[in-house]
Specification:
Blueprint lengths: L1 E3 L2 E3 L7 H7 L14 H11 L2 H5 L4 H29 L6 H5 L2 H9 L7 E3 L1 H14 L17 H25 L11 H18 L1 H4 L12 H11 L6 H23 L13 H11 L2 H4 L20 H32 L6 H17 L5 E3 L1 H9 L6 H7 L1 H6 L9 H10 L2 H4 L4 H8 L1 H17 L1 H21 L2 E3 L1 E3 L6 E3 L16 E5 L7 H6 L2 H11 L3 E2 L39 E2 L5 E7 L8 H16 L3 E5 L3 H9 L12 E2 L2 H11 L10 E7 L3
Parallel strand pairs: 8-14, 11-12, 11-14, 12-13
Antiparallel strand pairs: 1-2, 3-4, 5-8, 6-7, 9-10
């Protein structure tokens, strides 16, 4: 290859796969075997315990101060968010302190992200709360579970929350061991956006009773948001003015300061920790005795130090396993997405499967100490990174431990309405995702439908069922896109080996672009089933083959007018009532089929986007190729992956009819071969080549 300015010139022979293999011998690489040695043991230890890899490189002089500042700021926010989000989980606020500590200490050893702040996450807390209120409702007897005997309502709820968190962690651990971290790829940004927006609305509605100071039981299940709003409006005359005013003041101040942080983040050395306002609100509540003077509900008695570990309840696990699985997926998807952002920014790698292991063990360990589901929150992680945090050492070992456990009693006078206001303010980012809808409507209607379906289903059916419906809607759109092909005409750009839609360009080559050529793009993925798309149903197969050949299928008629040989769209009706299942084109055809003498000689299949073939697709491809060969159409396959070729050999794909010589490394090689084989272009209108490109769209 000779570069010349912005041009390049390549002089090489015309290759088929056979001739290429003759001139360029392929190296047979040895496969890795399962054996244990010192290096593999070290690598396995570093993979399982990422702390081994970075702790030895910890730069005390440059990182220590930043970690201390980050630990103080992020630890305070984590503690206060833990208190607030425990209300979403229908638990006493004190148990949010455990969620701010125990999962984080395990993630410190097992996690691969250096900036992720592990702790309570509002959507997971809400999903835990749905299970808690279902098994231990506010206004009725608890579920018939053996382990509930002798426990207070609070203890029953803590047992339920810890048990569902344990099984959630178990799901994450199993997925990590099975190396299925790629599962988050099936949750598109559109689906996650619709789901989290619906969750934000759920959270907002659930916090109205705390902001307004109302007292009514929580509701869960389908249409829970409707029933909750009904309770709010039916009891709104009993609003506690002190709670309402306090909430409005807190929300206004927090929103103003957060807006300042966003607008002047480039000028501020660190974001203003506005969550400290809760400490001020706690002091004001204590000084003016809000609880007795204004009947304000406060946090109340906090947990005193550590409590002994507990085992999960097997009956609760059976009752909540269905809800725990989507919790495991959502928790990991959110955490992995946030971790990936900061790993790219700070140039280090994260391992999705190791993250699943880390969160699985963290949640199982935390559940044993009465914490509820943990993931991360973008706001906490942003604070940790922006305040100079480099690792999780100081954050975890020092500044979450003391505020969370030992000094929790100082927050007992804090009004719950303040926590509710903080929760609502932190929903701003998720609620603003509504702004994506005009963009989606304008640019991608399919994604718009996925967003709306996921949002509506999650809003009215609940988050667990809504996520399932959203996944179903997304898969349905993928199937629809796959099953409905789009067609275009490819042309060779003059003087190049590039092929583009002939309608989009004028500079096309007459030598390589036959006037009647048609390119059919089948929207198939890696496991394209040729038997369906080109072989079955039979009507589709006949329609594609006959119309591409210029054939007209009709019943015998006395009409002697000239045959219409023009190419028509594939959607035109054709009468197949007299066509046999197998047509031998070398024998006399049925009387109701007329075959105009049109010279069609070649079919090219582009395999550039095919990454694997299953057995069904392989059999269908083989049968289809033989059908084309039977009607004397040469078939060529181009840009086939070497591993696909290996599988074709292993599965005895080749025989006396289908040979390896039909495979070419590029589309241009195949087209040049076709020109050499059919040099007579005296009547170009009778020459026809079909290029079928199988692509993942």
């Amino acid at each position: 290859m000779q570069p010349s300015g912005r041009h390049y010139v390549v002089v090489r022979p015309l290759f088929s796969e056979d001739s290429f293999a003759e001139q360029h011998e392929r190296i047979n690489r040895t496969r890795k075997t399962l054996r244990c040695d010192t290096n593999r043991a070290k690598n396995a230890a570093r993979s399982l315990l990422p702390i081994i890899g970075w702790i030895k490189n910890y730069n005390i002089k440059e990182w220590l101060l930043g970690d201390i500042v980050s630990g103080i700021s992020t630890g305070l926010v984590a503690v206060l968010q833990g208190l607030a989000f425990s209300l979403l989980a229908s638990l006493p606020p004190g148990y949010g302190l455990y969620t701010a500590f125990f999962p984080a200490i395990i993630y410190f050893f097992l996690g691969t992200s250096r900036h992720l702040s592990v702790g309570a996450f509002p959507i997971l807390s809400l999903m835990v709360g749905a299970v808690v209120t279902r098994l231990v409702p506010d206004g009725g007897p608890p579920a018939n579970i053996t382990g509930f005997e002798g426990l207070s309502m609070e203890q029953q709820r803590v047992l339920v929350a810890s048990s569902v968190t344990f099984v959630m962690g178990a799901f994450q651990l199993i997925m990590g061991l099975l190396q299925v971290g790629f599962i988050v790829m099936y949750l598109s940004e559109t689906l996650v956006s619709g789901f989290t927006t619906a969750a934000a609305v759920h959270i907002l509605v659930s916090q109205l009773r705390f902001v307004l100071g109302l007292d009514f039981p929580g509701v869960n299940g389908p249409l829970a948001i409707v029933y909750t709003l009904e309770n709010v409006f039916s009891d709104i005359t009993n609003t506690n003015v002190a709670d309402l005013v306090t909430s409005i003041v807190i929300m206004a101040l927090v929103l103003i300061v957060k807006e300042i942080n966003d607008r002047f983040k480039s000028k501020l050395p660190v974001p203003i920790p506005i969550e400290v306002i809760t400490v001020i609100a706690c002091g004001v509540s204590y000084a003016f005795n809000f609880e007795k003077r204004f009947n304000v509900v406060v946090v109340g008695e906090m947990v005193d130090g550590y409590e002994s570990p507990i085992a999960p309840n097997l009956e609760v696990i059976k009752e909540s396993a269905v809800e725990a699985f989507p919790m495991a997926i959502v928790g990991f998807a959110v955490a992995f997405s946030v971790a990936k952002v900061y790993s790219v920014k700070h140039d280090y790698t994260i391992d999705g499967n190791q993250e699943l292991l880390a969160f699985g063990v963290s949640n199982m360990f935390g559940a044993s100490f009465r914490s509820f589901a943990a993931s991360t929150a973008l706001s906490r992680t942003a604070i940790q990174e922006s305040t100079g945090g480099k690792t999780q050492v100081i954050l975890t070992l020092f500044f979450e431990l003391k505020p969370s456990i030992d000094l929790g009693f100082l927050l007992e006078p804090l009004p719950r309405s303040v926590l509710g206001a903080l929760v609502i303010v932190n929903l701003k980012g998720m609620l603003m995702q509504f702004r994506e809808l005009p963009f989606l409507w304008k640019n991608d209607r399919t994604d718009f439908v996925t967003w709306v379906v996921t949002f509506v289903a999650s809003l009215f059916l609940g988050l667990d069922l809504g996520l399932a419906v959203g996944l179903g809607a997304e898969l349905f759109t993928v199937v629809c896109r796959t099953q409905f092909p789009r067609c275009s005409l490819l042309a060779n750009i003059t003087g190049t080996d590039i092929y583009r839609d002939r309608k989009d360009y004028n500079s096309v080559s007459a030598d390589l672009n036959f006037p009647s050529s048609r390119t059919v793009l089948f929207n198939q993925g890696a496991s394209a089933n040729f038997q369906v798309d080109l072989g079955l149903p039979w009507e589709w197969y006949i329609k594609i083959i006959l119309q591409n050949r210029g054939l007209e299928v009709r019943r015998p008629s006395t009409d002697t007018s000239e045959d219409n040989n023009s190419m028509e769209g594939l959607d035109q009706p054709i009468d197949f009532s007299g066509i046999p299942i197998q047509v031998n084109w070398n024998t006399e055809l049925p009387a109701n089929i007329s075959v105009p003498p049109v010279n069609i000689h070649s079919l090219v299949l582009d395999f550039s986007a095919v990454s694997f073939l299953d057995i069904s697709a392989l059999k269908g491809l083989k049968a289809t190729l033989k059908e084309f060969l039977r009607i004397e159409v040469d078939v060529y396959i181009v840009s086939c992956d070497v591993y696909i070729m290996e599988k074709l050999h292993q599965c005895s794909f080749f025989d006396d009819e289908i040979k390896t010589s039909i495979f070419y490394p590029t589309l241009h090689d195949a087209m040049l071969h076709i020109l050499e084989k059919h040099p007579d272009h005296g009547e170009l209108e009778k020459v026809f080549t079909v290029i079928c490109k199988l692509s993942r769209l």
